[in-house]
Amino acid sequence: MDARLNYRTSRTAKKVMGHFMALGKVLKESALPAETQELVALRVSQINGCAVCVDMHAKEAAAAGESALRMNMVAVWREATVFTEAERAALALAEQGTRIADGADGVSDEVWANAAKHFDEEQLASLVISVSFMNTVNRLNVITQQPAGDYQVGQLH
Question: Fewest CB within 10 angstroms: 29, 31, 32, 34, which?
Fold first, then answer.
């Protein structure tokens, strides 16, 4: 499968993607726990059907020591007992922030308050930006049908 667009050969795309990668680096270095970042990125990418990002974040999470069990359970996190309350709060916010079109109210006050119980303002800022970032990158990849499966850990860092 070939991508519809090569982000490395289009001058505009290459420049914009460079900015995206810089933003991703800032987020990686943020106060939001790395485990939470990867779980959120994986879940948002699952919802959006972005194979490239599912591939990347599953491999990055595994390389960082995340268990296969927890990665496999992200899609059904509500019923899974393997996530902390903070991770569950982050996943709830990520899902509601991703599924905006599915609910007229966006992120509910209840979900926001629960996340705020577990994360300070800096971490919340990182979480919100991470969810938005992943949604944008997912759409770029899905629209252009970027192929997945050959990502190597650290490739984009």
Answer: 29
